[in-house]
Amino acid sequence: MARYTGPVCRLCRREGMKLFLKGDRCYSDKCAWERRSYPPGMHGQRRGKKYSDYGVQLREKQKVRRIYGILENQFRRYFEIADKQKGVTGDVLLRLLELRLDNAVFRMGFANSRNQAREFVRQGHYLVNGRKVDIPSFQVKVGDRVVVKEKSRNNPQLLSAMEAVARRGIPKWIEVIPEEFTARIKELPLREEITMPIQEQLIVELYSK
């Protein structure tokens, strides 16, 4: 599947906020956003563009896509699924994104970023309920148990991520047992537990036109 392979710090600058795409590096003074918080491009420092309502909605959608590392067609499918389910469409959409295996692995502290989590999942480092799952978009459910494979537990990047997770915290809907390299989905994530500044209603308005 096609993926964005350019400089990810450029995406943060384009959206005007930290998207935390490089994991622990984003919390350090090495973060490019700290040095250049203006939009990319030769005229970035002089941009004062005002967006239309459509432009604001589009930027919000792009921001959420980039946070979770999802391409347009897949993101639209998530919206269509959320729109058919009971509940507030925007809340259901974010819940579906949070329950992707790559995001869950990142939230558990078994990877330093969502990009790294996606790579680790594809490499088969994790078991879900005792079975190897190498599909990043796999939807975990309440009660599912995610375990780092025995052979992967000495991976220095994974160990570094488990040490760094204290900086961002583990959400309440996940229970982690670090010494056993195990985590469990306790409950569905609540909207208030998703702390990134996301205005999901703008996305609903965009796709509902």
CATH architecture field of the domain at 100-187: Roll
Given the C-alpha coordinates, what overall shape results? globular
Oligomer: single chain
Number of helices: 9
Major sheet characteristics: 5 strands, antiparallel
Order of helices and strands: HHHHHHHEEEHEEH
Mean pLDDT: 85
Q: What is the number of beta strands?
A: 5
Q: How far is the N terminus from the C terminus?
A: 28 Å
Q: Kindly report the spatial arrangement of strands forming the biggest sheet.
A: 2-1-3-5-4
If you compute it from the alpha carbons, what radius of gyration comes out, rounded to the nearest whole angstrom?
18 Å
Class by alpha and beta content: alpha+beta
Description of the structure:
By secondary structure, this protein is an alpha+beta fold. It has helices spanning 8-15, 32-35, 53-68, 72-84, 89-98, 101-108, 114-122, 156-168, 200-207, and strands at 126-128, 131-132, 145-148, 174-177, 182-185. Strands 2-1-3-5-4 form a 5-stranded antiparallel β-sheet, with helices on one face. The longest helix is centred in the N-terminal third of the chain and has 16 residues, at 53-68. The two termini are 28 Å apart. The mean pLDDT is 85.
